[in-house]
Amino acid sequence: GNSPSAKVLFEAAVQYQMYIIGGSIPEVHNSRDIYNTCLCISPSGKLIGKHRKVHLFDIDVPGGIRFMESDTLSPGDSLTAFSAGSLFGNIGLGICYDIRFPEYALLLNQKYNCGILIYPGAFNMTTGPAHWELLQRARAVDNQCFVLTASPARTEEPTVENGNQSKYKHYTAWGHSTVVNPWGEVVGTCGEEESLVVVDLDMDRVKKMREGIPTMKQKRHDLYRLLDVQESTTST
Question: b/e for 12-46, b at 16 or more Cβ within 10 A?
Fold first, then answer.
């Protein structure tokens, strides 16, 4: 559309000949619904994936933080994955709070055989130090794949001058963009400041991990099963 944020991402993908997973931006749909949306763009400037955040961040941690994303946003209703060619294969996508739901990641892997899962996210100063890295390592081990996260750099709450209070409460991000390998090791990370994290992804690690500990072939479908509800609904 006419989004200046999207325009920058498309232009950068073509200019630098690279895949871009563009964080997340508000997407207005039908003049009514607002989604938290991430655009996936190919090196040729094509939109190859669009993820609308599935799980909305509605939490109330006593003594910590209260946040009700559903007051403003609508939830997405689909899995998102795209192909990055023979080099990286299929890449699954979630946004922030989506990383807390192992079923979502497992279903992405079951359906698309993803070697990489990517989660743009902005955990806060309550959940960040406790769970940000932990959840990335958990999803990497669960799915025997790389997990990549990108967080905004941290900006401290501005000083209120002349009693002028902002309309919206300041949100302080934890930061710490990170890369985790299929063994659950952190192989690249940074602090809370603006940073660039560069990591070579050896996709053979995914294959070797899945061959060495073949949990995907050892599921007990006679006892439990992960069901793609949308696919089941469509086929009935």
Answer: ebeeeeebbbbbbeebeeeeeeebbbbbbbbeeee
Token representation of residue 135: 């959840």
- What is residue 206's three-state secondary structure? helix
- Residue 236 pLDDT grade (very low, low, confident, very high; cuts 50, 70, 90): very low
What are the φ/ψ torsions at residue 7 (nearest 5 degrees)? Answer: -60, -45
Does residue 167 carry a pLDDT above 70? Answer: no
- d(Cα 30, Cα 82) in Å, to the nearest integer? 25
> Cα separation of 89 and 155, whole Å?
35
**pLDDT score of 164 more than 80:** no
Q: Which among 15, 34, 14 is positioned nearest to 24, based on CA atoms?
A: 34
**Which pLDDT band holds residue 168 (cuts at 50, 70, 90)?**
low
Contact 53, 76 (CB under 8 A): yes
Give the integer Cα–Cα distance in Å for 76 and 51: 8
Task: Please give the share of the chain, as a percent, with pLDDT higher than 70.
Answer: 93
Check if the beta carbon of residue 10 is closer than 8 Å to that of residue 19: no
Q: What is the DSSP string of 128-169?
A: IIIIIHHHHHHHHHHHTSEEEEE-PPP-PPPPP-TT---SS-
The model's pTM is 0.92
**Helix residue ranges, H only, the chain:** 4-16, 85-88, 102-112, 127, 133-143, 204-212, 229-235
